[in-house]
Amino acid sequence: MNFQLPNSSKEKVALAIYDSKPSAEEMKQGKKPAFLTAKDLNIPAVVYTAGHLGGYYIDLRVVPAFRQQYDTIITQLCWYIDSVVGRENFDWVASSESAGISWGQSVADYFRKPFSFGRKEVKEYGTAKTIEGYIPTGSTGIIVDDLSTTLKSSTITANGIRRESAKPSATFVNFDRMQYTNKQLEELGTEFH
Hints:
The chain is α/β, with parallel strands linked by helices. The chain contains 7 helices and 8 strands.
């Protein structure tokens, strides 16, 4: 297969690169420096929203169309959340906008908790809020999202919740691409599952 990176987004192409920085010793052993393209890697590749390069694409937006499988995943996710956090230890559920909403809303419904979601960008009209929904001051809750790559959307949501004077205690995702750094994990500021 002959893969070509898109011409329309040179910034993403620049970021959609093998991003490890080999040491001098690794370079001697033949490890290439940053800025490898899919052709260099000799694999078909997908450019993720965050600009990283990967060999597969996962669209969890379609899973709710398959109710039996979706319900099984939600039940397992809720069991895990209850085991790790305990339903009595959180007041609400939030997610990031778009694909995370169905997952977060389903978890909130399961636990009979209020649901809110974080916007990626503040609206320039209306209330100009980052968080849509109601999160009481001083309350504690959890973030549920579809997947993580760089933790950016979960971090934006967590920071929006903190601006509401509430505390996100843990973040749960269904699929973790593990392309974030320790610094990005620290910036999230919650337990991450």
